[in-house]
Amino acid sequence: MENLIFGAFATLEGYREGDAANLGRTVYDRCTVTALCSAKAQNPRCTVALLTNAPVPEPFCSQLTGGGVEIWDCPFDAYRVPADTNWALAYYKLCAMAWVLAHRDFARACMIDLDTYTQHPLDDLWRECDEAVLLYQVPHAASQTMTAAISRCFDAVEPSGAPHSLTHFGGELVAGSKARLTAFMAQCRRYFDELQAQGITPREGDEAVWCGAAYRSLAAGQPVRAANAYIFRYWLGGHFYYVSTNYTLDPVCILHLPGAAKDRQLKLIYQIYARRGAFPPPERIHRLCGLPAAHPPLCQKGQFPAAGESPPALLPARRPSAAAAHRMDAAAGPPVRSRYAQEKERPQPAAGSRHQDAGAPAGAEPR
Q1: What's the half-sphere exposure (Cβ side, CA atoms, 13 Å) at 215?
Q2: Which of 119, 176, 354, 363 could be joined to 180 by an S-S link, Cβ 3.0–4.6 Å?
Q3: First vs last Cα of the chain: how many Å apart?
Q4: Is the confidence at residue 351, as pLDDT, over 80?
């Protein structure tokens, strides 16, 4: 085969998927159908496969094979960590990549997470695979909690030069030519073994291993590139909503929809596919995901002024209902007064007093 797209799913008694309790097998099977059947629909000439250590139940097995997806049996016999480790099952992705390299012949491969939806072909990705390993670069600063923890793991293995600041790469996409992936997985294997020798099992799952291997690969002159032109991680939760208009403007090929979207937006997409045998057009996918409109919020189409024209008047803001306003006020908390207003409200010392308000701690004013 020339180009391979695959996803990996493992289940083991007592093993954890992440911080939260497992969502249940059905949720993951629905996501698997959506991820891999959409990848095959957009890349019909590529081999698309599911690697798993357990039989796929019906109707999901028939939906996968009916959508052109192959199912390969891959035992979870490498990169195993204790069952109570956070993201213990995520280490199966490392096992699956190693298995594919050992048991399948291909020119290029792309492993994707199974909470994704592919909306465009991966033609440009394959062009880059010959030149580098590609990983999704998570937009985290060096001090972000998870990124800092990944760097500390590397410091424990390589204390010389510590503290290190590793680039945070996610595990939702790992791609490259077979030769480049083989060299990269050798780095992963060595780094994982060194972590285990130090008694370290990262709570950050497979991402800690990808990051350490990428750091060493770059130091050894083996190219690693950010795959952010092809995939983006959209958080669609009620408390953490992090999105971009790159789903349609210079669009990425793959929408990664982690967290609550597994049992919400991806469930809706699966139900449409299961009912019709085809995925809805991209515009409807974007609406189902609640992705923002790809234009400035205060302007409508045709309102941008031409050269020499005056800018249009701003559209009036829509007034929220009383109930909505009350909810927004409650969520915002007590109002923060300006420093000027606080100074006016502060009791003034009597004329001639030498009182300096010594009881107020330095920096007490709100910033």
Answers
A1: 21
A2: 176
A3: 60
A4: no
pTM above 0.85, yes or no: no
Q: Distance between CA 211 and CA 208 in Å, rounded?
A: 5
**Bridge-partner residues for 255, per DSSP?**
117, 232
Backbone angles phi, psi at 158, to 5 degrees: -125, 80
> Residue 186 carries which side chain, given as an amino acid letter?
A
Structure confidence at residue 323 (pLDDT): 62
Q: pLDDT above 70 covers what percent of the chain? A: 79
Q: How many CB atoms lie within 10 A of CB 10?
A: 22
